[in-house]
Design goal:
Elements (H helix, E strand, L loop, with lengths): L1 H24 L11 H16 L2 E12 L1 H14 L5 E6 L2 E9 L2 H13 L5 E8 L2
Antiparallel strand pairs: 1-3, 1-4, 2-3
Length: 133
């Protein structure tokens, strides 16, 4: 019985070694991707279309909503701390809102809002149309 068990153990060990060697050997190689002229033409048309659009879906950050005087104070304080980020004040009856930035992806906006919150501003990200650069 012991010799039969030892034979199976050796057989299983050899099979494991062979299969792992085969997996390791498959890590190298090259990939060649071919695309037709039609696909290249469609991609070029899509790029041209995207550049022609004036507004696209994106994200902004809202710092404040409330009365007009406070909105201007928040905007000025933010501009001192973050002079490189564009700010705007919008009026939507009955509230004034302070919006900052213009981000194409939620990830970009989330990274910016994290930095803004670290500077002691209340802020949140919202989806809106933004200008296409």
């Amino acid at each position: 019985m012991k010799t039969l068990l030892n034979k199976y153990t050796i057989l299983i060990a050899v099979l494991c070694l062979l299969s792992s060697a085969n997996l390791v050997a498959q890590n190298e190689g090259t990939i060649h991707i071919e695309s037709s002229e039609n696909i290249k033409h469609i991609i070029a048309k899509k790029r041209t279309y995207n550049k022609s659009k004036r507004k696209i879906k994106g994200y902004k950050i809202q710092l404040f909503y409330g009365n007009e005087q406070r909105a201007y104070k928040v905007r000025d304080k933010f501009s001192e701390a973050f002079s490189d980020i564009k700010t705007e004040i919008r009026f939507f009856s009955p509230e004034w809102k302070v919006w900052v930035g213009s981000y194409r992806t939620k990830l970009e906006a989330d990274n910016a809002v994290k930095e803004i919150k670290e500077a002691s501003f209340n802020a949140f990200v919202f989806a809106t149309d933004i200008k296409n650069h």
